[in-house]
């Protein structure tokens, strides 16, 4: 198999699965691990992948999985992150939730919690639908056109609604976290809504698993310095954690 064909097939696997392992690709294509590493380097330089210790992950700026695909990825880590995030919510709070699979897990935890009398602002229709099942929650939906992949409302009407409120804590799920290039999302319209919520919030809490580290997506949401707290799983690299903390941002690993 010529290298161009093999690299195209590796890219197709990346787009389907989100990541690849060098050893597995070597066995699949019957070439040496060194050859696969060269392929992954080529894909990285072309902007399609980001190499990791064991292989590579998808890195196309505009790439976006569906909501259900996101829910199934790293589910255990997201559940742990959500349980820790709940510890920062108290009776009587006014919080905001972005859309996304990690904030959806946080929503499920909220429904099962003993927290009472909270107000929740969200632009996610599936999160809102879950929250209204629970008595004692005041749910505000920032409505507008709905994106099919994420079930999030976007557009000027959403931002106008957000701008009417002073939010206590904003829990935001993201697609990319970079020390130099900040927090980003796969969709620019969702990033604009999240940016508005950040501006209206006293505290911004990012909830994300370690696979988001080092990625830069198309929609710039905010600089890393605009975050107050980062809640992630324990697979976060130590050097990343230290670098974030030197910037005065609190990090909690679960």
Task: Report what the structure shows.
The protein has 254 residues and is α/β, with parallel strands linked by helices. The chain has two domains: 3-58, Arc Repressor Mutant, subunit A (Orthogonal Bundle), CATH 1.10.10.10; 67-253, Rossmann fold (3-Layer(aba) Sandwich), CATH 3.40.50.1360. Helices cover 40% and strands 22% of the residues. The strands form three sheets. Strands 6-5-4-7-10-12-13 form a seven-stranded parallel beta sheet, with helices on both faces. A three-stranded antiparallel beta sheet has the order 1-3-2. The chain has a three-stranded antiparallel beta sheet with strand order 8-9-11. The protein is elongated, with a radius of gyration of 19 Å. It starts with a helix and ends with a strand. The mean pLDDT is 90.
Task: Give a nutshell description of this structure.
Helix content is 40%, strand content 22%. With 254 residues, the chain is α/β, with parallel strands linked by helices.
Radius of gyration: 19 Å
Biggest beta sheet attributes? 7 strands, parallel
Strand content: 15-25%
Q: Briefly, what CATH class of the largest domain?
A: Alpha Beta
Question: How large is the count of helical segments?
Answer: 10
Main-sheet strand order equals: 6-5-4-7-10-12-13
Judging from the principal axes of the Cα atoms, what is the shape?
Answer: elongated
What is the count of β-strands?
13
Query: What distance lies between the first and last C-alpha atoms, to the nearest angstrom?
Result: 44 Å
Approximately how much helix is present in the residues?
Answer: 25-40%
Mean model confidence by pLDDT = 90
CATH architecture term of the largest domain: 3-Layer(aba) Sandwich
Q: Say what the CATH topology of the largest domain is.
A: Rossmann fold
Count of all domains: 2
Q: Give unreliable regions as ranges.
A: none
Task: Please trace the helix and strand order, writing H or E for each element.
Answer: HEHHEEHHEHEHEHEEEHEEEHE
* Secondary-structure content class: alpha/beta
């Amino acid at each position: 198999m010529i290298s161009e064909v093999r690299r195209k097939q590796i890219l197709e696997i990346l787009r389907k699965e989100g990541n690849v392992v060098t050893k597995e690709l070597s066995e699949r294509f019957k070439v040496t691990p060194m050859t696969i590493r060269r392929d992954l380097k080529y894909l990285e330089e072309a902007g399609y992948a980001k190499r990791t210790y064991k292989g590579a992950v998808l890195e196309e700026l505009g790439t976006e999985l569906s909501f259900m695909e996101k829910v199934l990825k790293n589910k255990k880590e997201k559940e742990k992150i959500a349980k820790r995030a709940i510890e920062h919510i108290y009776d009587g709070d006014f919080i905001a939730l972005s859309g996304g699979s990690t904030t959806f897990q946080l929503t499920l935890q909220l429904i099962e919690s003993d927290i009472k009398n909270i107000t929740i602002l969200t632009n996610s229709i599936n999160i809102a639908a879950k929250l209204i099942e629970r008595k004692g929650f005041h749910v505000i939906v920032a409505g507008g056109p709905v994106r099919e992949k994420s079930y999030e409302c976007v557009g000027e009407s959403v931002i106008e609604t957000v701008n009417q409120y002073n939010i206590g804590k904003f829990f935001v799920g993201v697609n990319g976290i970079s020390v130099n290039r900040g927090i980003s999302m796969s969709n620019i319209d969702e990033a604009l809504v999240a940016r508005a919520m950040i501006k209206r919030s006293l505290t911004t809490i990012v909830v994300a698993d370690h696979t988001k580290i080092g990625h830069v997506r198309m929609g710039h949401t905010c600089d890393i310095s605009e975050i107050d707290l980062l809640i992630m799983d324990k697979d976060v690299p130590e050097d990343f954690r230290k670098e974030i903390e030197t910037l005065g941002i609190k990090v909690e690993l679960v």
